[in-house]
Amino acid sequence: MIHMTLKHLRIFVTVYQEMNITKAADLLHMTQPAVSRSIQELENYYGIRLFERINRRLYRTKESEEIYVRALHIVNSFHDMELEIKNWDEFGIFRIGASITLGNFILPVMIRQLQNLYPNLRVQAAVSKSNTIYELLLDDKIDIAIVEGDIPDEHIHKEVILEDHLKLILPHEHPLCSKPEIYMEDLVQYPILMRDKGSAGRTLLDQIFAMHFLSINPAWESASTQALVNAVACGLGISLLPEQLVSADIASRKVISRPVVDEPFLRKNYLIWHKQKFLTQTAKKFIALCHQESLFHL
Known about the structure:
Layout: H1 6-18, H2 21-28, H3 32-46, E1 51-54, E2 57-60, H4 62-85, H5 88-91, E3 93-99, H6 100-105, H7 107-117, E4 122-128, H8 130-138, E5 144-148, E6 156-170, H9 184-187, E7 192-195, H10 200-211, E8 220-222, H11 225-233, E9 238-242, H12 243-251, E10 256-258, E11 266-274, H13 281-296
Parallel strand pairs: 3-4, 3-5, 7-8, 7-9
Antiparallel strand pairs: 1-2, 5-11, 6-9, 6-10, 6-11
């Protein structure tokens, strides 16, 4: 009877990623028949079809998509364990992801502190929208991440590290500047300039407006916070952006900020990693540093 081994999973993961037996065999330094035989053994063992073979091409099945996520983390966890044993913390690579606001203000500080502890450690950082960072984490292309907003996924471990607010910003002499109190329903009376869909800030705002039973149709959508600030300053509309990203513009009076009476625009920021991820000593130290940084910001 054939028993499943780590080698079977490595072969499956490589074939799944390359979608080509020949390329997979080259990467694995194996013959094509040996790779095909391993895939067939895996299929026979579990009684499922991992790939459809049509006109000499491979197509993934739903079963292979489900198995791939688990197999990838098993293979990489074993790899991580070997690196841990070989003092990877001192001389290896640590891959960190961050959403845009945290990548601007928190991540550089955390990386500097980590490299002070491990001078020979190579740190690779990816800063992007929260949903992009989430996908990189699931694909095991980063080890750990700090993101704005919640990640509703049972495969992801998450810990709150910080809270922040979105700030309403207005151009000078906007009608809302002279209004004694501003409410959510007041905001939808004016052009709203927002971050693009997929960003943590946009997701939060969509949820908040929906909870207030208000519909919004943004006049602008942009991946650039500074583009939105400049547009507000030019009188093209109003916006709601992370406090850390607009505090300097508010302080310099480039734009005006006012509170909204019936909504605090509070959000939580999370430290996240895959539940099946093997945490090296470097990762554990980074987690501890993040929690220390969160205490500093309280």
